[in-house]
Automatic annotation (TrEMBL):
Keyword Signal tagged: no
Source species of the chain: Actinomadura spongiicola
Species lineage: Bacteria, Bacillati, Actinomycetota, Actinomycetes, Streptosporangiales
Protein name: Amidinotransferase
GO MF, one annotated term: transferase activity
Family: Belongs to the DDAH family.
Keywords: Hydrolase, Transferase
Amino acid sequence: MSVLPVTEPGAVRTALRRRYLMCRPEHFAVTYAINPWMDPAAGADAGKAVEQWEALRAAYLALGHEVSLIDPIEGLPDMVFAANGALVVGGRAYGARFAHPERYAEGPAYAKWLRQNGVSEVLDAEYTNEGEGDFLTLDHVILAGTGFRTEVAAHQEAQEFLGRPVVTLRLVDPRFYHLDTALFPLGGGNVAYYPGAFSPGSRAVLERLFPDAILAGEQDAAVLGLNAVCDGRNVVINAEAVGLTATLRRHGYEPVPVDMSELRKAGGGPKCCTLELR
Ligand code: ARG
């Protein structure tokens, strides 16, 4: 596995056009708690969530990306978190198999959409995995989280199906229950992450693979600042992550702040709402 080009502060970054799949949060609610962010007693406002989600979608369109939509299903309040629906790489989709019964039905719904929209090879996974929530794809490697949701056996299953090397990373802080709450790819073979979310061994792996990574502090992580989407240049990121936003700017990236405060009540941010179709 090669360690890819170094990121230098102030370097010129190039954006690549992306294809995203999103799901309008019409049925969004916090009615159960499957992560520490969720408080059913406090609830959430679907109308406000839709407004914030529309702004996210508009931000992608303004950046020149393509956004496809999957119909939301009543009774699946977390379906807005499209990232969890699958892992799509090289035109093949590794289907999600959710850890919690509240979300089981989302896996087949996303698989069906993918089959109907030109992805001919969709694998119904044997092992528990929550799609791009726990699988983040770089050019030469796929980083995979485990510890709370996705099983290590799923990492191996995905590697075999996709023919790409998958590196297991262990998550240890329940606030960062999916890999995409603690790390995001920057393009150019680099990543940004919050070290405190990972086991000591996984931290050492990240240091070895990404000696030039952008490291985020706890304050930025605690507002889900790592749940960001980078197209190689622009970084769509929670507006509250001010420290990380400034760091990204210093490194030549163009932050695009968004307000996802309502969706954060379910433990989600911009990346959770976004499945990339590669
Ligand atoms: N409430 C959802 C859950 O706990 C949030 C999922 C967020 N998605 C993500 N890709 N991190 O499953």
